[in-house]
């Protein structure tokens, strides 16, 4: 604060000014008369007379300082402070659709929080429906990290030389401190000696005291000399070849330093912010494809298309192609796990960013979406003996496929008592539903109703007990 006041004060540049800070009554707290001062811009000063005070710096230097402070402030304001939290590009991400800064949000799932970058200003400010765009932070951070490391590589040699120089100058600095301490000790010892010699021998008590002080000073000086010698032995003023080598290796291994345990997330964020102004992010449609552009501090840009995890295979930009390929492979009589191997070899990636599309996912897709007969090859693990699904009984997965709906909706229906079920006696305690032809028809009929139809009917009934409208 003191430095700020000093740097902003025109008096140091020889300028007399009046009316730089004026009280704004609207901002004043009546109980505290000194509040509400507002710093005015230079055109609003009431009086400004240059060259009337003894100047410490020139007006040009003062103006340069002001400009530099303003630039720093602007940078601090656009970047925001480095916050805690693992998201590397936090505060750097900007929405490519509307240009607003993206927030970091934590999506908690299975008790661990996954950071996401989200543009939701319209939601908070205007109550708009849905977010502008949202994407997993992991893929963005990986891209930013890769680019930052690449940008730092050429600097490695320079860093190593500079580090060596810094070590040397640091040691020189320490040596200077040592010399000062030694000088002081010498002076103290000398003074004690002179006092001792000046004392009248008749004053024995005084002489004895002075002698003791001289001895102490000499002992202190001796100890300091020994300490200095030890210091010089352990860290010589010139770097050894081995020390130079260590520094070069460390500085050359930027990636190693970046990932080192001693490098904190805050360190990494600060490095990223030192060289990156912003990261513009644009999700293409609702697909996995994201255009990410790094705007470097100097204004240069690095655009790249990155891949984000999405919720379902259907969101993938290559879903139509993928579906056609699965159909084709299934048509050749290849089973789900065989198809999974083929797809991995052909470079198809799953929606959520794993290594491969699993056989289960493919089976589910063939069954539910692609209407592949091969999907029906899938048989659930058998029920305990005597509990197998009977003629009009269904595993929930099969019933859901038969009715072309999700199992979660089926569970909701079961919960409401619209489907009769029994549970197998041993793990995993799956449900088996009962539905004969007539019941199936009723369920299909129910399926055609618009969402919310039943709940609305239930609660508008005059009868206080919710009843089935159909019953
Ligand atoms: Zn946006």
Explain this structure to me?
By secondary structure, the protein is α+β, with helices and mostly antiparallel strands. Helices cover 48% and strands 14% of the residues. It has 16 helices and 14 strands. The protein has helices at residues 2-8, 59-79, 121-126, 137-152, 155-198, 204-234, 241-252, 254-259, 265-275, 319-331, 336-345, 359-370, 396-403, 407-415, 437-448, 453-460, and strands at residues 16-18, 21-23, 37-39, 47-49, 93-95, 103-109, 112-119, 133-136, 276-283, 289-296, 301-307, 393-395, 420-423, 431-434. The strands form 5 sheets. Strands 5-9-10-11 form a 4-stranded mixed sheet. A 3-stranded antiparallel sheet has the order 6-7-8. Strand 13 (420-423) and strand 14 form a beta hairpin. Helix 5 runs antiparallel to helix 6 and helix 5 packs across helix 7 (241-252). The model is unreliable at 457-471 (pLDDT under 50). It binds zinc ion. The site of zinc ion has 7 residues, from loops. Zinc ion binds next to loops.
Tags for this entry?
single chain, 471 residues, alpha+beta, four-stranded mixed sheet, 16 helices, 48% helix, disordered C terminus, binds zinc ion
User: How many β-strand stretches?
Assistant: 14
Number of helices: 16
* Terminus-to-terminus distance: 77 Å
Which percent bin holds the helix content?
A: 40-55%
User: Which small compounds were modeled alongside the protein?
Assistant: zinc ion
Instruction: Describe the main β-sheet briefly.
Output: 4 strands, mixed
Strand order of the largest sheet: 5-9-10-11
Poorly predicted runs are 457-471
Strand-residue proportion: 5-15%
Give me the secondary-structure category. Answer: alpha+beta
Form type = elongated
Radius of gyration: 38 Å
The topology string of helices and strands comes to HEEEEHEEEHEHHHHHHEEEHHHEHHEEHH
Average pLDDT number? 81
């Amino acid at each position: 604060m003191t430095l700020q006041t000093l740097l902003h004060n025109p008096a140091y540049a020889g300028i007399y000014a009046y009316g730089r800070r004026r009280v704004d009554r609207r901002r004043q707290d009546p109980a505290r008369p000194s509040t509400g001062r507002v710093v005015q811009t230079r055109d609003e000063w009431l009086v400004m007379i240059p060259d009337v005070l003894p100047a410490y710096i020139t007006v040009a230097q003062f103006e340069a300082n002001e400009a530099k402070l303003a630039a720093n402030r602007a940078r601090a304001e656009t970047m925001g402070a480095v916050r805690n939290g693992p998201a590397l590009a936090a505060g750097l991400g900007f929405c490519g659709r509307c240009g607003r800064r993206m927030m970091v949000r934590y999506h908690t799932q299975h008790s661990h929080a996954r950071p996401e970058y989200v543009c939701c200003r319209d939601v908070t400010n205007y109550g708009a429906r849905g977010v502008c765009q949202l994407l997993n932070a992991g893929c963005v951070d990986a891209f930013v990290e890769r680019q930052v490391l690449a940008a730092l590589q050429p600097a490695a040699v320079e860093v190593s030389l500079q580090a060596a120089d810094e070590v040397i100058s640091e040691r020189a600095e320490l040596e200077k401190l040592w010399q000062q301490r030694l000088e002081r000790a010498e002076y103290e010892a000398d003074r004690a000696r002179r006092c001792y010699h000046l004392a009248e021998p008749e004053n024995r008590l005084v002489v004895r005291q002075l002698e003791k002080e001289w001895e102490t000073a000499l002992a202190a000086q001796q100890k300091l000399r020994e300490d200095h010698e030890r210091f010089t032995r352990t860290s010589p003023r010139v770097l050894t070849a081995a020390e130079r080598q260590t520094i070069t290796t460390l500085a050359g291994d930027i990636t190693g330093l970046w990932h080192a345990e001693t490098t904190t997330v805050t360190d990494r964020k600060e490095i990223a912010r030192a060289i990156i102004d912003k990261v513009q992010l644009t999700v293409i449609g609702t697909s996995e494809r994201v255009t990410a552009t790094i705007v470097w501090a100097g204004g240069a840009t690095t655009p790249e298309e990155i891949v984000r995890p999405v919720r379902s295979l259907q969101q993938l930009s290559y879903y139509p192609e993928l579906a056609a390929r699965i159909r084709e492979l299934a048509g050749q009589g290849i089973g789900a796990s065989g198809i999974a191997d083929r797809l991995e070899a052909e470079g198809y990636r799953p929606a959520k960013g794993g290594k491969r599309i699993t056989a289960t996912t493919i089976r589910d897709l063939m069954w539910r979406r692609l209407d592949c007969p091969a999907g029906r090859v899938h048989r659930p693990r058998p029920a305990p003996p005597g509990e197998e699904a009977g003629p009009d009984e269904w595993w929930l997965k099969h019933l859901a496929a038969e009715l072309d709906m999700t199992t979660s909706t089926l569970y909701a229906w079961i919960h409401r008592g619209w489907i009769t079920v029994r549970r197998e006696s041993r793990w995993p305690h799956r449900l088996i539903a009962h539905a004969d032809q007539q019941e199936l028809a009723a369920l299909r009929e129910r399926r055609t109703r618009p969402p919310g139809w039943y709940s609305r009917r239930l609660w508008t009934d005059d009868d206080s007990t919710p009843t089935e409208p159909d019953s």
